Amino acid sequence: MAEDSKSCVICGGTESEGELLLAAPCHRHFVCHDDVSSFFERATQNESLFPPKCCGQMFMLEEYEDYVPFDVAWAYQIKEQGEYAVLAK
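Above: the chain's sequence. Below: its structure in token form.
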């Protein structure tokens, strides 16, 4: 019985030998390892993309940190605790 093909919501890539897709927080979509990292990286560069979400559900860094390079995770946390933590007036 063939399993439904999963594909990355960002790049459209499918699961391949050795790289399984990660479930997005909504549990209806999937992301590849490279794109989950870019979700966090883009959020540090553009506040309108912060926090990264899928179907309104937030990507929690601690759930994906194994797939996010240290420098990207660090920059994300700096933004999260600093500049992005300030409430708009």
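DSSP finds three helices and four strands in the chain.
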